[in-house]
Specification:
Layout (H helix, E strand, L loop, with lengths): L2 H9 L3 E5 L4 H17 L2 E8 L8 H25 L4 E8 L2 H12 L3 E3 L10 H6 L17 H20 L8 E2 L1 H7 L7 H12 L3 E3 L13 E3 L1 H9 L1
Helix pairs in contact: 3-8, 6-7, 6-8
Length: 238
Amino acid sequence: MGFDAWEERELMPEKVLLATDGSKDAALAARAAVDVCEGTDAELHVVHAWQSVPTACLRAYMRAELKKLGNELLEEGVKRVESAGGLVAGAHLVEGRAADEILDLAGQIGAGLIVIGSQRGHSPDPLQERLRRPYSAPGGGGCSGGRRIMEDRIEQNALELLQAIREHHPDIYAGAWVNPYTAALEAGLDPDSTHYRVAMEYLQAEDVLEEAEESRELGGGGSLYTITLRGMEMLREV
């Protein structure tokens, strides 16, 4: 084996850490991570970082939901790797600021490479900015925007569902019956997805939707709900 071959072998990572968040870019990152591991025989580890809501409002509920969603996104990341022909040596759910926790985990398992999705056309992501820094300094500052990533995603999904309900029920008023399931279908959303379930739980926890006393399974699927005054206020804001 020549010098160049030895040098190349020394640069090959023995372990690769894939950070996943359930986005389209994360799917591309999973494929890239599998390709790297196939070419280097490196172990592939998958991590998802979640963080609880910093406010006191609905703290216990939101913490439980965020952790549950985080675990589901981690499982989704593992399935993506396996679908791409990869083998996951370890799946890790960590709590805290994404950049800090991912870098800490990389140090703990001895990962020589961290793979993340790149959000093309968007402003720099705090996680990516932190991971561009020297790997030997995982305890630095930064990532102030990472705190609300999961909370913002849940709120965004809820707002998208609320908009779909308004489009499906143009003459909506407080106390009116609505069918979120059918509204989601017509809007091109997936009412059988985790995101829909969490969005519905969020809207009910925020007293936006209440399951109707006369609720029943409809032919098209889904149950009936009534929209509250709080829901009408939110509709005027979206």
